[in-house]
């Protein structure tokens, strides 16, 4: 069966510090991978998605970036965090049929 | 107009009652519809999906889709306190366009 791992679970970072969140998927090949952010009281916002190694599409212009160095690895990064980057970050995957989306356990990021 | 709209609630129902959660969407070309359950501080969990008009039942859950009226609903029969969570409606309009509502918070009162 497929599983998705995301870490860390919680992170407290000062403004201006870098960020690296990692996500890996097991039990499937060539998944579509996604990064979402969920701000308090708001809906899920798609940040990035990837259909293959090195292929990244950005949905929202911001100081975040994503990379997919391996088929089942997806990384979310920032060089300098802003206060507005605080939120619940979720990695997700889907099969190539692009139907059902499955989420990782999430990272609660607080930028202070 | 938002692509997917849900009443934020909170919706409170007594234990054993039917909880009815509703969602409307704006794109008539929408193809797939999903319901996710999200406990506080946890990630969303897929609980139902529906592609065709009508009802789809899975245990205590029933998803209902009416494309003509552009709404999708989720019924939870015999509601339990463990059903207390936020329920997210998601609508897919294209290959990489999956839009989420902001969720309805459900509280089941013992």
Protein described:
The complex is a heterodimer of chains A (112) and B (110). Helix content of chain A is 0%, strand content 58%. Chain A is mainly beta and 112 residues long. In chain A, strands 2, 4, 5, 6, 9, 10 and 11 form a seven-stranded mixed sheet that branches. In chain A, strands 1-3-8-7 form a four-stranded antiparallel sheet, with no helix packed on it. With 110 residues, chain B is mostly beta strands. In chain B, strands 2, 4, 5, 9, 10 and 11 form a six-stranded mixed sheet that branches. The A-B interface holds A 32, 41-44, 46, 49, 57, 90, 98-106, 108 and B 32, 34, 41-46, 49, 88, 90, 92, 95-96, 98, 100-103.
What's the topology here?
The complex is a heterodimer of chains A (112) and B (110).
Chain A: E1 3-7, E2 10-13, E3 19-26, E4 32-38, E5 44-52, E6 55-58, E7 64-70, E8 73-78, E9 87-94, E10 102-103, E11 107-111
Parallel strand pairs in A: 2-11
Antiparallel strand pairs in A: 1-3, 3-8, 4-5, 4-9, 5-6, 7-8, 9-10, 9-11
Chain B: E1 4-6, E2 11-14, E3 19-25, E4 32-38, E5 45-50, E6 54-58, E7 61-66, E8 71-76, E9 85-94, E10 97-100, E11 104-109
Parallel strand pairs in B: 2-11
Antiparallel strand pairs in B: 1-3, 3-8, 4-5, 4-9, 6-7, 7-8, 9-10, 9-11
